[in-house]
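Hey Z.,

So I finally got round to the nicotinamide-adenine-dinucleotide thing we talked about over coffee. Here's the setup:
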Amino acid sequence: MTDFTMETGADGVAIITWDVPGKSMNVLSLEGLSDLDRLIDAALADDAVKGVVITSAKKDFAGGMDLNILARMRDEAGDDPARGLFEGIMRMHGLLRKIERAGMDPKTLKGGKPIAAALPGTALGIGLEIPLATHRIFAADNPKAKIGLPEIMVGIFPGAGGTTRLVRKLGAMAASPYLLEGKLVDSKKAKGAGLIDEVAEDPVAAAAAWVLEAKDADIVKPWDQKGYKMPGGTPYHPSGFMTFVGASAMVNAQTFGAFPAAKALLSAVYEGALVPFDTALKVEARWFTNILMNPSSAAMIRSLFINKEALEKGANRPEAPDQTVKKLGVLGAGMMGAGIALVAAQAGIEVVLVDQAQEAADKGKAYSESYLDKGIKRGKTTPEKKEEVLGRITATTDYAALAGADLVIEAVFEDPAVKAEVTKKAEAVLGEDAVFATNTSTLPISDLARASARPGQFIGIHFFSPVEKMLLVEIIKGRETGDRAVAKALDFVRQIRKTPIVVNDARFFYANRCIIPYINEGIRMVGEGVAPALVENAARQLGFPVGPLQLVDETSIDLGVKIAKATRAAMGDAYPDGAVDEVLFWMADQGRLGRKANAGFYAYDESGKRLGLWEGLSGKYPEAEAQPDLQAVQHRLMFAQVLEAVRALEEGVLEDIREGDVGAILGWGFAPWSGGPFGWLDMLGAPYAAERCDALEAAHGARFACPALLREMAEKGQSFYGRFGPGSAEAA
Ligand code: NAD
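And the result:
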């Protein structure tokens, strides 16, 4: 069985069909690539073939490239991996260029065979780069189709000619949302944007008809014609100059230079625009090789593509029959409860939303209504869908309405007594099999489970705010939580299309446990006289979406004070020194409670717009004359978090480092280019990481002490993925 097959009709049109055996979605493998190469050669050599249509037998065209191809190219090249990659990429360019030139005479540009692409649905990555090399792209009118080049999202960029061709087709400005943001569109929008050429009811028939009619001139790409001018201009053209200066400024403003792929992409576009097409492909291949050789791309692909998908597919799901949720109870219709009700109803689940007063329950449901109204305005949903989703949510004060729910999630006040009361009330009406979950952020699950008559069916399902936006859900096992409850939580997270991690019960679970030291280290530095702007920019330049001071403004300073007081009470003498609390409590005393008070570490105008760092801070905490260098600040921010992740692994809170990495990036935006805390430590190497811990401990205190596990790994020369990654002896 091969991935591509070819059949030539009596009309002389050869239909090449992509249909990877045993898969629901086509993905390009090395074998597939040589199949396609062989078939194109055969079609070009066969006099009976007048033209070619490349299509798919599946409902979509293709999901992209099997990213293991890249690893194979690198590994098979032995001592010179960069050469292996470059040559592999150039072979791919060779094939696509062969499709584009289609056997025409390079001087007269005559005598080539028309080749068209017919896309039934989704066409991503190489699944669009192949069509871009054909002479005309037809797509079915399929609103579910996703068409685009999402490579940048996993730390690479379109490196099979997609970058060079799209920029020459649309111009750098128009191509930038597709290349730099990985924007995906349906077929109609793709035609509007010029990504594809035609939307047709039957794209294969339309493509075949076009192929038979096409003249020599129809199959010469603009960039192969004399006098071709790039739309919008090249870098030395006045309007092109504006585009390139603007694009470079925009990319740096958004990424703070923390994403090597965005920079490399811009370089490939800029340099490629200055040279002829074939040289531009070579330039693209060199920058693509450069990015693939950067450890960041492998780390990002591992966490954001391979491991994220593995977790979503249930890599850590215990054996248990299907636990799909049919009816969900949500207790507490506040900020979190309202969001949970929305995402569940959107996933087709019947929801009962309970609060103390009908007014509060209705308000929670109204959140879904206003969210969906905004969606209608933006063309993301329809009035019919809105009614359908709202029809699934019952807002009530009556616990009896929970009867028949197979999962309940409580999101009432963060108070053990209130939580105990609602647990009992709900369990009184629930069936024996129902699972009860708490969305608590700070209270131990095993303690809350004491209120339950069935602690084996009691679990933590911890959402992040805002629920509808945040991709991660942290599932927490209490001491007595059973396998079926874990499977239930995982099946529910799959239904609402989020990414789960499963951790054990310990103070702040995993995500908050790492976020709090990040915030605290930032606040501590302010107390020491480090310039707040240096702290914030150091974080942004690491790729964090928000600096620690902005983050605490968002989550509110009084919440920080509350957590600090509760933690101090729980930890007693083990509580770290009060340097952070001093700054935090002082801010609270000043009434600077964060964004909600329009006053925090940042200043805000009346409408809540963030203006800049609050100048009054320097009255109390003047900036020291000697400031630390950028890397010193960055290492403090990074180590504060990653050492917490290592301790979570050491203590068994984390059972799988993949969850630690994926959870960090999706949960709080941990430097995505690093692949996560363990990915970053592997980049540093355990010996250097341990050395840095010692230096940081000597300079700043015991919180940076090297965990025993990291010390041992440094001595043995081990890496986290080598020792704990999938397939290793200690993998969970
Ligand atoms: P909230 O104050 O916005 O909402 C709580 C809701 O619970 C209110 O509507 C209240 O009327 C209702 N409630 C209180 N007692 C009740 C009872 N006996 N029966 C029914 N309803 C009752 O709070 P929130 O921010 O949505 O947080 C809820 C829970 O989620 C807390 O445990 C919190 O720790 C957790 N959490 C919050 C966040 C966040 O960012 N806010 C993130 C993750 C988890």
